[in-house]
Amino acid sequence: MSISKLRQDARKIFDAGLQAVDPKVGVHKSLKCESECLEVGERTYQLSDFNNIFVVGAGKAGAPMAAAVEEILGDKISKGTINVKYGHTEPLKKIKITEAGHPVPDQAGLWGTLEIIELLASARENDLVICLISGGGSALLPLPVDGISLAEKQELTQKLLACGAAINEINAIRKHISKIKGGQLARIAFPATLLNLILSDVVGDPLDAIASGPTVADTSTFQDVKDILNRYGIWRDIPIPIQSHIQKGLNRETPETPKSGDEIFSKVQNVIIGSNIQAVLAAKNQAHNLEYNSLVLSSLMEGETKEVARVHAAIAKEILKTGNPLKRPACVISGGETTVTLRGDGKGGRNQEFILAAAIDISGLEPVVILSGGTDGTDGPTDAAGAICDGQTISKAKRRGMNAMGYLSKNDSYSFFKPLGDLLMTGPTKTNVMDLRIILVGDN
């Protein structure tokens, strides 16, 4: 089994995972409309009961989700506006798209969020609001509380991304300096009926963490926020106005985010239309079709990227040496989302760094291929979804005079893989359910 075939199969398996979490398909499976009845899960909405149907939302998958809602409801939609990442658009008829910055929020996102709030504020008791949330929604819904500027929020976001904080920790902080996150979108929309369709990009699919839970009761507190900032040693480094706001929350001078039991959630339905496990299982099915013995390691992988990579490399070594946990040809698949603690000034993302660390550990092993990619098609601030490596990757780099450990220490994985032709390029996929990692060990 050649390395070339293993590489081709790894990409086929990855692509199958992507196809399984197509946002349009997810919306059509979850939302059924016949005549005046809208069926969502176990609930049925009589559309004749509503004066208006508004559509709002934010996330990388917002455009295809909105397109599906337009296909289902057509002219029944009164008005809509959503925020998406730059380049993640498609033609819509009734719903306005605002392109904005991600992962660091920008002014366009702020303007788009103000338009969303204006539309929500116009909703009345006999109106239906359909909210479309997907990965990236936190950065794409920037509206800081009074006294905190967008620039200060941008500075905080950069520090959180660099310190290695997990996404649920970052979102807990975002919720407490926002006017719309942490259940506060539901507060603005109340007393309208609110239907929230969610494409999950958070490990374990906790509703209050996805896009910082704008329609969900918040389980985190101001004390949690300060504890997180102290844990990563950045409390004293964040902008003073943000420190002051958090301290006011601790002193109960500023109200907490909405909690469970608040009446604003009495007319809210939250529905997950896609998640990482769907991508993982579809990838496994494709691997089976390609005649690999397949195993799902976990869809809940978290932790420092380099350490998680070493674990995956060790599994490949075990398969080669003992035939455990699978006989060859073998495919091991994992999902979830790891984190990178930045110590250098290089260019890359968690998936590229994962593959660089894995490549070092499997150097010289044959026949092994490892692929890791973000399902949204972008890994960190790069145009690559991730990367792919095999047992000869490090030796190929050495022949070019490239020291893999040096690139890893500088967090410069993109610069390492680009000249080797080993970047995983998909373009914007317009979906986002975290990452997909694939280990293939072929027959000799």
What key attributes describe this structure?
single chain, 444 residues, alpha/beta, glycerate kinase, domain 1, Rossmann fold, 2 domains, 6-stranded parallel β-sheet, 6-stranded mixed β-sheet, 16 helices, globular
Based on the structure given, which CATH architecture of the largest domain is correct? 3-Layer(aba) Sandwich
Instruction: Decide which structural class fits the backbone.
Output: alpha/beta
| Overall 3D shape | globular
First and last CA, distance: 6 Å
Which fold does the CATH topology of the largest domain refer to? Rossmann fold
Descriptive report:
Strands 6-5-4-7-8-9 form a six-stranded parallel beta sheet, with helices on both faces. The protein has a six-stranded mixed beta sheet with strand order 10-11-15-12-13-14, with helices on both faces. The mean pLDDT is 96. With 444 residues, the chain is of the alpha/beta class. The protein has helices spanning 3-20, 23-30, 62-73, 107-121, 137-140, 150-163, 167-175, 184-189, 222-231, 240-250, 276-289, 305-322, 350-361, 393-399, 404-409, 413-417; strands spanning 31-34, 37-40, 43-46, 52-58, 79-85, 95-100, 127-133, 193-199, 268-274, 293-301, 330-336, 368-374, 386-390, 423-424, 435-441. It has two domains: 3-14 and 277-441, MOFRL domain (glycerate kinase, domain 1, 3-Layer(aba) Sandwich); 23-143 and 178-220 and 257-274, Glycerate kinase, MOFRL-like N-terminal domain (Rossmann fold, 3-Layer(aba) Sandwich). The chain is built from 16 helices and 15 strands.
